[in-house]
Design brief:
By secondary structure, the chain is α+β, with helices and mostly antiparallel strands. It folds into two domains: 173 residues, no CATH class; 227 residues, no CATH class. The protein has 15 helices and eight strands.
Length: 409
């Protein structure tokens, strides 16, 4: 049972990564198209098709040539629509990368609505191609798969409606206001979960020189890990673990990755490391810090000489202000307990480093605009009035406001 649970958690974690790929849902729906074709073709061997021809004469096709022509037209039209849709996606992604930030591309690619629609096209084309194989030009009226053709026509009409929605959805999703709102909502949702589940910093692990450090032989962005599996391993082996690399950061091969209060043999270490997922991309749903990076980069890019869009920069700073006020409610330590005992601690990007990175980037590229300079100052003043997890956060903000006043004077 234990092995089954570990395998399930591992599969679930891997699934969360691959479902963000643009080809994931289209592939699933394409397979559904194959299965539908097999099922409908099987039904054609029963009296269903004859019943359709006898009772719904206007919906049945009596000529094999007509049936072939109709299916061919549907396939050709769907292929044209699919090619156009993919072209639109690639064009808009290119524009988003150049005008806003390359970091937002994984979020746009993981939009399930667009994946579903592209899957509908692919599934419909595959279904119609299978039906096409079963039609002969010289076929008699009774041997024409009327039911299969009728379903294919309805599927094609559905795809045409999906195409209209696809154009509408893409035109909305590429607007910078909607992009910022989506990033903000994802990060806010993730932060709220972390704030609600956080433990007091007093429960953090006390690391000393007797702790053992272990390296990792993989590289990539530290995306996620199976918390339940690692806590069980720690409990079973009576050990405590501290992860040295924050989530979302790039891990280099042979980096010091974790520490343990007891020596771990190779077998247990391998078992622990198998519960960590690494990726070449970053997702906000796994790492809220990425939202701060993306919104900051959008603000900076908006103030570049080639774009010069202060309005977008102001909107980005507004979203940053709200997210930072929520981040102030979170501690700087990510603690995980098992039976009220801290067994796992993951290093996180502390508030001081986070605010310094954001304000430094904004000051470098936005201070030449007086309105934005005041906006940045107002952001920090607003944060000083908000509730914070600890008083140290206020000291960090006061230091930043002092530096800003020196530069503005």
């Amino acid at each position: 049972m234990k092995v089954v649970n570990e395998s399930f958690n591992k599969i679930k974690s891997i699934f969360n990564i691959i479902q963000g790929k643009i080809a994931f849902y289209p592939s699933i729906i394409a397979l559904a198209g194959v299965l539908l074709a097999i099922i409908i073709t099987t039904l054609e061997t029963t009296s269903v098709s004859n019943f359709l021809q006898e009772n719904f004469t206007s919906l049945s096709i009596k000529s094999g040539d007509t049936a072939l022509t109709m299916i061919s037209v549907c396939i050709g039209g769907l292929i044209s629509i699919m090619v156009f849709s993919f072209s639109v996606v690639m064009l808009l992604l290119s524009q988003a990368s150049s005008n806003f930030s390359p970091r937002i591309l994984p979020g746009l690619l993981s939009d399930k609505k667009n994946q579903y629609i592209l899957g509908y096209y692919l599934g419909a084309i595959i279904y119609l191609m299978f039906i096409l194989f079963s039609i002969r030009p010289e076929a008699s009226e009774n041997s024409i798969p009327s039911l299969s053709i009728l379903i294919g026509v309805f599927i094609t009409i559905f795809c045409l409606g999906s195409f209209i929605y696809f154009i509408h959805n893409m035109s909305q999703s590429i607007q910078i206001g909607n992009i910022l709102e989506k990033i903000f909502n994802q990060s806010k949702k993730r932060l709220k979960v972390l704030v609600e589940k956080q433990y007091d910093e007093e429960g953090s692990l006390k690391v000393n020189k007797n702790w053992n450090t272990y390296k990792i032989n993989r590289c990539g962005y530290f995306q996620n890990f199976s918390q339940k599996n690692i806590l069980k391993i720690c409990e079973e082996n009576d050990t405590k673990i501290k992860i040295l690399i924050p989530k979302g950061f790039f891990v280099l091969s042979n980096d010091d990755f974790l520490m343990s209060d007891k020596e771990i043999d190779e077998k247990i270490l391998h078992k622990i490391l198998n519960n960590f997922n690494f990726s070449k991309t970053e997702l906000i749903s796994d790492n809220y810090v990425l939202a701060f990076k993306q919104i900051t980069e959008i603000a900076v890019k908006a103030m570049s000489p080639g774009i010069n869009d202060p309005g977008t920069a102001i909107n980005a700073i507004d979203y940053l202000t709200e997210l930072l006020s929520l981040r102030m409610l979170k501690n700087d330590t990510d603690i995980h307990k098992f039976n009220d005992e801290t067994l796992l601690e993951v290093k996180t990007l502390n508030f001081k480093k986070l605010i310094e990175d954001i304000v430094t980037s904004l000051k470098t590229y936005c201070m030449q605009d007086p309105i934005l300079a005041i906006k940045i100052k107002n952001m920090i003043n607003y944060l000083l009035e908000q509730k914070a997890y600890k008083e140290e956060y206020y000291s960090v903000l006061k230091n930043q406001i002092n530096l800003l006043e020196k530069e503005l004077s």
